[in-house]
């Protein structure tokens, strides 16, 4: 069975929160939508809310799916959701840096390869 990995697109006005990875070495320094693995018995929404609380220090409400599922290797499926911050204070507990970017900056970021697939969908949402 595939391991589901969830990522959150935290949008505030016309900006998107992106997180710069610290590890593993091959992905360090690249930007991504923050998130993590879904634990056994956990819903995707619960997992994403937990991961964002652990990684960023924020409470979120998980909204609709963003784009399509992305297969990573043979055993992982990456899914993104739009999230809304409801509390907490942003802090990069698990990342090198956090940054708010506009639609104009999306293409210029050095993205984790898998997350690039969501750029058209993210651009559409930020442009709205």
Describe, in plain words, how this protein is organized in 3D:
The protein has 128 residues and is an alpha+beta fold. The protein has one domain (3-127): Nucleoside Triphosphate Pyrophosphohydrolase (Alpha-Beta Complex). The protein contains two helices and seven strands; from the N terminus they run ββββαβββα. It has helices at 44-56, 119-127; strands spanning 3-12, 15-21, 31-32, 35-37, 58-72, 76-88, 95-102. Strands 1, 2, 3, 4, 5, 6 and 7 form a seven-stranded mixed beta sheet that branches. A hairpin with a 3-residue loop joins strand 5 (58-72) and strand 6.
Q: What is the CA–CA distance across the termini?
A: 37 Å
* Named CATH architecture: Alpha-Beta Complex
What is the domain tally? Answer: 1
Q: Radius of gyration in whole Å, from Cα?
A: 13 Å
Count of DSSP helices? 2
Number of strands: 7
CATH secondary-structure class? Alpha Beta
Question: What is the third-level CATH name, the topology?
Answer: Nucleoside Triphosphate Pyrophosphohydrolase
How confident is the prediction overall: mean pLDDT? Answer: 95
- Largest pleated sheet: 7 strands, mixed
How large is the share of residues in beta strands? over 45%
CATH superfamily grouping: Nucleoside Triphosphate Pyrophosphohydrolase
Low-confidence stretches: none
User: Which range best describes the helical content: under 10%, 10-25%, 25-40%, 40-55%, 55-70% or over 70%?
Assistant: 10-25%
H-E string: EEEEHEEEH
| Overall morphology | globular
Structural class, judged by helices and strands?
alpha+beta
Catalytic activity: 8-oxo-dGTP + H2O = 8-oxo-dGMP + diphosphate + H(+)
Enzyme class: hydrolase
GO molecular function: 8-oxo-7,8-dihydrodeoxyguanosine triphosphate pyrophosphatase activity; 8-oxo-7,8-dihydroguanosine triphosphate pyrophosphatase activity; 8-oxo-dGDP phosphatase activity; 8-oxo-GDP phosphatase activity; metal ion binding
Family: Belongs to the Nudix hydrolase family.
């Amino acid at each position: 069975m595939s391991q589901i990995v969830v990522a959150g697109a935290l949008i505030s006005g016309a900006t998107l929160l992106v997180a710069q990875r610290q590890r593993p070495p091959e992905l360090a320094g690249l930007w991504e939508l923050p998130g993590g693995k879904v634990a056994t018995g956990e819903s995707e929404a619960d997992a994403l809310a937990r991961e964002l609380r652990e990684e960023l220090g924020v409470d979120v409400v998980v909204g609709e799916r963003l784009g399509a599922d992305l297969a990573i290797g043979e055993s992982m499926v990456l899914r993104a959701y739009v999230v809304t911050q409801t509390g907490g204070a942003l802090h990069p507990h698990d990342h090198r840096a956090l940054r708010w970017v506009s639609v104009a900056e999306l293409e210029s970021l050095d993205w984790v390869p898998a997350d690039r697939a969501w750029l058209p969908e993210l651009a559409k949402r930020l442009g709205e």
